[in-house]
Amino acid sequence: MSVEIRVPTLGESVTEATVATWFKQPGDTVAVDEMLCELETDKVTVEVPSPAAGTLGDIIAKEGDTVGVDALLATLNAGDSAAAAPAPKAEATPAAAPASSGSSVDVMVPTLGESVTEATVATWFKAVGDTVAQDEMLCELETDKVSVEVPSPAAGVLTEIVAAEGTTVDASAKLAVISSGAGASAAAPAAAAAPAAASTGKDVENAPSATKMMAENGVDASSVTGTGKDGRIMKDDVLKAMAAPKAAPAPAAAPRAPSAPSDAAREERVKMTKLRQTIARRLKESQNTAAMLTTYNEVDMTEVMALRNQYKDEFEKKHGVRLGFMSFFTKACVHALKEVPEVNAEIDGTDVVYKNYVNMGVAAGTPQGLVVPVIRDADAMSFAEIEKAISEKGRRARDGKLSMAEMQGGTFTISNGGVYGSLMSSPILNPPQSGILGMHKIQDRPMAINGQVVIRPMMYLALSYDHRIVDGKGAVTFLVRVKEALEDPRRLLMDL
């Protein structure tokens, strides 16, 4: 049976891609979900997996061809007559170990998500020689966005660790070997293998076609400015760098030496996690790209606190979730975004993309770093639905269980530094978004109300916005509407 391999959905507003690299050739045997080729767009690199096991037939779109969405890339000969997916490779039995009637199962890197091509082995929960059950967690991988747990594909004994802790592996790398079957219990422990050079030597951060071109032409990656997602170097970037005048390479920065020899023993040097590196890079990109400005206001929380105290027990009893402040702020922001839509828009080249929906990002601090899970279609949710979504996303964030899809597609973000005691701050934009609201600590302060000084629970609000798309008037109007809605929550019911 012939199966057509077509261009997958490339993402919002992306209509075409370039075939960068074919990993398979006509006649090659492929397994289900094995990567066939890689496509490059102006934003991301997309890998195309095989929809079935079989043999690759004709390649219709060659490397370098530009193709549209759903275009035919190749054909696949699948079915009973096609070659089956390759069986797991049996590992050599150590000389000291008795022969085993069981089989060896390779533990491979699981699917990491769209555009994620490598991960770092963070922790091994099992050691060589340990008995493992099927689906028992073997190790944890860190990518630049999420942590991924790797379960055991079979019951047996862990006989070999191929990728040690700290090793960077690509999306198709082997992590370990499990001896399963009747002879698994008799398998002798093997020494943990050193990190495989083949798994760590490839620079998979950049587009494969770009990496190939840089290697063939002796181009240093540090001299190329990447225009792809998260600074990824694309093929066109290499061509531009090769055409530019050559500059003398800057010397590599040496590790900072302690200020005094006696300080060395009191310092600890720890490599940044993938997530922390991505946070650092994206925040700096935000500063370098957006014309970021922050405007401030303050809100009297008296009415919101009174309404919450009045209904919180009944709310929790009916909906099974606590009534917090975040649902009020989310509703107030949705209300304000309808009046000032540019705060919910983004710049794409020379276009402004207005979003007629609100995917609310809610910044959450975790032991691994700051993550921003997204509540989709928050503008269509009730208070209870918002609270349930925030509770669930927060729990998954703390447990490191968020998927990449849950952190993509946000149109506006709320950051609550008040839970840590922050009185005032200037939040930084989460690109490509054009606005982020900073919440802060609720503090009793003396306020002049109707000519009298009274004590009120006050909170400072901060809106950071991209001045390229949002004018000062729009930013101030947005913040005033949020303030009005919170100081008189009845306005939300009447859409005022």
UniProtKB/TrEMBL annotation:
One of its GO terms (biological process) is L-lysine catabolic process to acetyl-CoA via saccharopine. Transmembrane segments: none annotated. Residues 205-242 form the Peripheral subunit-binding (PSBD) domain. The keyword Magnesium does not apply. Pathway: Amino-acid degradation; L-lysine degradation via saccharopine pathway; glutaryl-CoA from L-lysine: step 6/6. GO terms for molecular function: dihydrolipoyllysine-residue succinyltransferase activity. PANTHER family: DIHYDROLIPOYLLYSINE-RESIDUE SUCCINYLTRANSFERASE COMPONENT OF 2-OXOGLUTARATE DEHYDROGENASE COMPLEX, MITOCHONDRIAL, DIHYDROLIPOYLLYSINE-RESIDUE SUCCINYLTRANSFERASE COMPONENT OF 2-OXOGLUTARATE DEHYDROGENASE COMPLEX, MITOCHONDRIAL-RELATED. Forms a 24-polypeptide structural core with octahedral symmetry. Part of the 2-oxoglutarate dehydrogenase (OGDH) complex composed of E1 (2-oxoglutarate dehydrogenase), E2 (dihydrolipoamide succinyltransferase) and E3 (dihydrolipoamide dehydrogenase); the complex contains multiple copies of the three enzymatic components (E1, E2 and E3). E2 component of the 2-oxoglutarate dehydrogenase (OGDH) complex which catalyzes the second step in the conversion of 2-oxoglutarate to succinyl-CoA and CO(2). This is Dihydrolipoyllysine-residue succinyltransferase component of 2-oxoglutarate dehydrogenase complex. It comes from Celeribacter baekdonensis B30.
